[in-house]
C-alpha cells in the first residue's frame, strides 16, 4: 500500500499494484468459504485463472491515472489534484472489491453451507454465498479505499499548515500516516460484518426451508 501510493510512473505503479493485488488475492483464497466443490472442472484451477485475470486487470486500472498523466502533460492544477490525489483511492477500493468478487465467484455460483442456531448444516445456498462475497468485497473496498484517500487529505492539511518545515521529512511523515490509517482501518474493516453471517428465512431458497422451521440461519462469511 505504501509503495503503491508514492509511485509517480505508470510502469512502476503497475508492478507494485500487481504485487499488492497478488497478495490480497492469495489472502482471499486462503480465507474464503470452503463449501464449493469441483464439479466437472478443477475448482482451484478456475480460481487461480480468475485471480490472475483479476490481478492483471486491477493493476492496469490502478496504473491508468499515472499513465494518463505521463501521456498528457496537464498544466491544470485541478486535473493534477483529481488524477494524482483523488482518483487512486476509489480505484483501489473498487479493484480490491473486484478481485474478491472474482476469486470467490464459485461461492455464489455453487452456494455455501447455511446452519441453524445449533451449528447443524441445513443446506447449501447461493443467496447466502452471494451475501457473504458482497459483504467481504465491501469491507475490502472500505479498507483500502480509505487507506489511500485519508492520508492524502491529512498530508494536504499538514502541508497547508506548514507543520513539517523540512521537505525531506514529508516522505517519512507520509509513510507514518499511511501506516497509522491502515492499522486503524483493519479492525474497522473486519468488524463491519460479523464473521458468522446471518441470513433470514425469507432470503433463502424454498428447497432449503422445507426441512426446517428455523427463522434465522448462519453462514461463514470468510475475510
Automatic annotation (TrEMBL):
InterPro entries: Mtc (IPR004686). One of its GO terms (cellular component) is mitochondrial inner membrane. The chain crosses the membrane at residues 48-69, 81-103, 137-154, 175-193. GO terms for biological process: amino acid transport; mitochondrial transmembrane transport. It is found in: Mitochondrion membrane. Keywords: Amino-acid transport, Membrane, Mitochondrion, Transmembrane, Transmembrane helix, Transport. Its main location: mitochondrion. It is a multi-pass membrane protein. Pfam families: SFXNs (PF03820). GO terms for molecular function: monoatomic ion transmembrane transporter activity. The keyword Kinase does not apply. PANTHER family: SIDEROFLEXIN, SIDEROFLEXIN-4. Belongs to the sideroflexin family. This is SFXN4 protein. The lineage of its organism: Eukaryota, Metazoa, Chordata, Craniata, Vertebrata. The gene is Sfxn4.
Amino acid at each position: 500500500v505504501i509503495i503503491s501510493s508514492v509511485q509517480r510512473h505508470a510502469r512502476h505503479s503497475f508492478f507494485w499494484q500487481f504485487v499488492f493485488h497478488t497478495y490480497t488475492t492469495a489472502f482471499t483464497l486462503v480465507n474464503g468459504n470452503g463449501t464449493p466443490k469441483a464439479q466437472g472442472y478443477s475448482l482451484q484451477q478456475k480460481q487461480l485463472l480468475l485471480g490472475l485475470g483479476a490481478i492483471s486487470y486491477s493493476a492496469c486500472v490502478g496504473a491508468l491515472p499515472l499513465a494518463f498523466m505521463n501521456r498528457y502533460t496537464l498544466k491544470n492544477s485541478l486535473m493534477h489534484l483529481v488524477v494524482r490525489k483523488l482518483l487512486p483511492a476509489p480505484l483501489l477500493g473498487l479493484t480490491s472489491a473486484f478481485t474478491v468478487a472474482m476469486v470467490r465467484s464459485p461461492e455464489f455460483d455453487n452456494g455455501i453451507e447455511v446452519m441453524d442456531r445449533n451449528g447443524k448444516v441445513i443446506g447449501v445456498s447461493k443467496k447466502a454465498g452471494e451475501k457473504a462475497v458482497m459483504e467481504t468485497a465491501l469491507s475490502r473496498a472500505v479498507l483500502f479505499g480509505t487507506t489511500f484517500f485519508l492520508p492524502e487529505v491529512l498530508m494536504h492539511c499538514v502541508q497547508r499548515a506548514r507543520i513539517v518545515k523540512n521537505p525531506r521529512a514529508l516522505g517519512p511523515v507520509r509513510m507514518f500516516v499511511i501506516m497509522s490509517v491502515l492499522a486503524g482501518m483493519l479492525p474497522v474493516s473486519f468488524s463491519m460484518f460479523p464473521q458468522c453471517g446471518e441470513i433470514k428465512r425469507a432470503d433463502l431458497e424454498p428447497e432449503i426451508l422445507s426441512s426446517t422451521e428455523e427463522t434465522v440461519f448462519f453462514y461463514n462469511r470468510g475475510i
